[in-house]
Amino acid sequence: MTNIIKEFYDVVIVGAGVGGGAMANRLAEAGASVLVIERGNYLPREADNWSVKAVFHDKKYTAKETWRDRDGKTFNPSTYYYVGGNSKFFGAATVRFRAQDFEVLEHEGGVAPAWPIRYGELAPYYDIAERLMGTHGLAGADPIEPPRSGPMPHPPIGHEPVIEAIAAKLRAKGLRPFPLPIAIDRHDGGTCIRCATCDGFACKLGAKNDAELRLIGPALRSGKVDLILDTKVERLLTDASGRKVIGIDARHNGAPLTIKGDLFISAAGAINSTALLLRSATDRHPRGLGNNGSDQLGRNYMAHNNTAMMAINPLRRNPVVFQKSLCINDFYLANTVRPYPLGNVQGLGKLQGGMLTANTRFVPEWLMNRFAERSVDWWIMSEDLPDPENRVTVDGDGTIRVSYTPNNLKSHTELVRHWSKLMRSIGFPIIITQKMDITVAMHQCGTARFGTDPASSVLDPYCRVWDVDNLYVVDASFLPSSTGFNPSLTVVAQAVRVAEHIAATVLKTPAAA
Ligand SMILES: Cc1cc2nc3c(=O)[nH]c(=O)nc-3n(C[C@H](O)[C@H](O)[C@H](O)COP(=O)(O)OP(=O)(O)OC[C@H]3O[C@@H](n4cnc5c(N)ncnc54)[C@H](O)[C@@H]3O)c2cc1C
């Protein structure tokens, strides 16, 4: 439902994903009038939500959009434009970054830079973020867990017997597997049925704790936040001085719409926020908003080195349904395999044959189905590093271009190799891997990094654009390093921190804790 909207708001938020949702959620308590503008609509709850054919082959829910790569080759990004953004399809792993991620961290392929804040500054906001998202997990179980103030909001969801047996075998080999922190509605009275169509699918039951259900929904119910749908923001309008955004130009169902306001938040996702700031160029900001001092806007694009792995025992069926319950961080920092960080391993939503064949049509689906019935599946994720030449730009015809060459690959290859070896040693002799390519922009980040120096960053430490007084960016663009973890909890925590800052310093009313 689209509210009747006003012509002027105290705060205008572009995008209803986890960043925009968290911001709206917190500012709803601050006494300001808030508008969220979303280019998509609500994702319908229907049978196709759980159909491999609809989701992976027909790409029914994927954005109908074409981007270009560095060489000008077009591709269809697997990204989602709905209330809730990409979190409608996320795997709900809601993991804190490590204390070490906020410091300079040396990798085999280069250096991950220090953040302008330390972990301790974000820790209280991680507490709020876990509460907002409804995370299940076990405090103290992760061997490299950063300090935290108390237990997770909900207890761990537990492992199915096959996963429990694998965890025991890994423990026998000296590893320290632990329950993956996960945001699903699995507490007493919750609606989650632990099905196989969670990670990569939308939840037909509304039992996955995505941004629509946990952040935007409560904000709207407060009666203090308006939401307008099917409205793509095309430009941020600045005043003659260039220091102030005064409004946005958008297309609402194709028709032009202008909305004015006092404070503007871009939360359109790392790639779309970059495109929006670039498209808002003026004489005062010839290279786009936030790009005068540093020329960093759009640069340092990161998305992780990601591999999906099937570890198969051809002689034994695997009856597991929900396997996204286990996590391994033994290789996250310098480790016994190599003296450098390698990354994180976590259970992947149960693979079904058609999911992997969607992009590799030469493999017969019946064969993949046989494998999937006998596999345990993993998501292997390693940090990629900021490189100014990996960048998001907008071509002359308005098309987004993502120029990206993966880096720090040795660490990822080592992790995949070592995990394959481990899987073979515990009874899974056949390994199939698929490395994610540029179309998989699910962990996009880094294109408007925050920092203390306007010469090398786009945002200040509270995510305000350096050379525009009333413009903030609160999606995954702000990350100065991608770390080796899923980003959404950190995006929520940072948005909560920024909302509190805005409420206290600009709106002069403390946002609720
Ligand atoms: C299959 C999949 C699995 C994932 N699994 C996990 C996981 O387990 N754990 C985890 O932490 N992360 C996971 N992620 C990543 C996670 O979903 C994202 O990091 C997170 O949702 C990003 O949030 P965001 O607010 O930065 O951007 P987005 O989610 O991209 O939200 C941006 C919003 O802005 C809207 N928008 C864009 N441009 C405009 C415009 N011009 N005008 C108006 N509106 C606009 C979009 O429609 C969207 O709703 C997964 C993602 C996918 C796709």
From TrEMBL:
This is GMC family oxidoreductase. Transmembrane segments: none annotated. Residues 181-300 form the Glucose-methanol-choline oxidoreductase N-terminal domain. It holds the Pfam family NAD_binding_8. Residues 438-495 form the Glucose-methanol-choline oxidoreductase C-terminal domain. SUPFAM superfamilies: FAD/NAD(P)-binding domain. The lineage of its organism: Bacteria, Pseudomonadati, Pseudomonadota, Alphaproteobacteria, Rhodospirillales. Signal peptide: none annotated. Keywords: FAD, Flavoprotein, Oxidoreductase. Belongs to the GMC oxidoreductase family.
